[in-house]
Every structure is written in structure tokens, then in C-alpha cells.
Specification:
The chain is an all-alpha fold and 201 residues long. The chain contains 8 helices and no strands. The protein has helices at residues 3-6, 13-44, 46-53, 58-83, 87-117, 125-128, 132-164, 173-198. Helix 5 packs antiparallel against helix 7.
């Protein structure tokens, strides 16, 4: 526990920000490794990745991108409002971020359900009958989008805690700033995933 937390004081903004940037660096390393693996495997199976990409619903991918971009905007506006001493406005905007993030997960759930219904998931007999490159494509798809969805859930949990545990106050600006930084990373990762999977055909 930090000295500030032990005495019931707000966290030191510099230390809180530094800690978050160090954490984000580990997240970038994680997703960076997966992106490198995707690039290597796509070079090995270009035609099969192309065919597998044709089975993706690009419209849903683009729609979810717009949802996530909008949620990043509302998160940033919420932080700006809190810094200007407008907690009620900040709360409303953060609630909008929460709703948009949940909407993203709902769309992702429908998309995953459709893939599972068609047997395009790791371990299925239909996927096992496809060429190796297509199996790799869908394995990467479920791994990377699943990991991303877990990060979305983590970000939403932080925002829900900020809204539900006494609400937004100026003393929580550092917490909201770090949560928003994390949310922006989630957004950037999705923007990278969009062309790799949904526009790969």
C-alpha cells in the first residue's frame, strides 16, 4: 500500500501515472509479440489467411471499431470534465463509456456465437478439416480477440468501480486518468486487430 493510501490521501499523480505507463509497456509487449506471430504466420500461409479472412464479418468489425472509438472519446471528455470541476458531467460521460464498452462486448458475443455455430472454433471437427493456415488464422482470431475482450472487461470493471464506489470526485482524477489511459490502449489494440482479421480477405 502506498503512503498516500495508508493515510487516506489521494495518490501522488506522478507516481500513479508512472506506474500506469510501466504497466502499459508490459501490455504493449504482450500484444506486440502476438502481432509479430501473426505477421510471421501470415507470411507462411498468405493464401489460406486470405481465404479465412473472407469468412469474417467486416461490417461488424467496423461497427465495433466506431463503438470503441466513441467510448474512448467519452472517456477522455469525462476526464476533462472532472479536471474542470464538473463531476456530474464527468459521471454521465463515464456512464456512456461503460454503456458503449458493454455494447462492444455484446456485438463480439454475437460474432463469436456465429463462428461457433458454424464450427469455426479451435478444437472443432470442421476447423480440423480445413487447411493448416486457416486453422492458424482462426486460432489467432480467438486468442487475440479473446485477450482483447478480457482487457475490455478489465477497463469496464475499473470504470464501474469509479462510478459505484462513491462516484467521481476531484480526488479520483488520477484514478480516472489511469483508467482512461488503459482504455485508449484497448482502443489502439482493436484498431490494429481490425485490418488483420476483418479486412484480411
Amino acid at each position: 500500500m502506498s503512503p498516500e493510501a495508508a493515510h487516506g490521501l489521494p495518490p501522488d499523480p506522478f507516481r500513479a501515472r508512472l506506474g500506469m505507463w510501466l504497466f502499459l509497456a508490459t501490455e504493449i509487449t504482450l500484444f506486440g509479440g502476438l502481432l509479430l506471430a501473426y505477421a510471421y504466420l501470415r507470411l507462411r500461409h498468405p493464401a489460406e489467411f486470405h481465404r479465412a479472412g473472407a469468412a469474417m464479418n467486416a461490417a461488424l468489425g467496423v461497427a465495433n471499431t466506431l463503438v470503441l472509438l466513441t467510448s474512448s472519446l467519452t472517456a477522455a471528455l469525462s476526464l476533462s470534465a472532472l479536471r474542470r470541476g464538473l463531476p456530474a458531467r464527468a459521471t454521465g460521460l463515464l456512464a456512456g463509456t461503460l454503456g458503449l464498452g458493454l455494447g462492444f462486448l455484446v456485438v463480439k458475443g454475437f460474432e463469436w456465437s456465429a463462428k461457433i455455430h458454424h464450427g469455426l472454433y479451435p478444437g472443432s471437427s470442421r476447423l480440423a478439416a480445413l487447411p493448416p493456415g486457416e486453422q492458424v488464422f482462426f486460432g489467432l482470431y480467438f486468442t487475440m480477440t479473446g485477450l482483447h475482450a478480457l482487457h475490455v472487461l478489465a477497463g469496464l470493471s475499473v470504470f464501474a468501480a469509479l462510478l459505484g464506489n462513491g462516484g467521481l470526485t476531484r480526488a479520483r482524477t488520477a484514478f480516472l486518468e489511469n483508467g482512461t489511459l488503459f482504455w485508449h490502449l484497448v482502443d489502439v489494440v482493436w484498431i490494429l486487430l481490425l485490418p488483420l482479421f476483418y479486412l484480411a480477405a
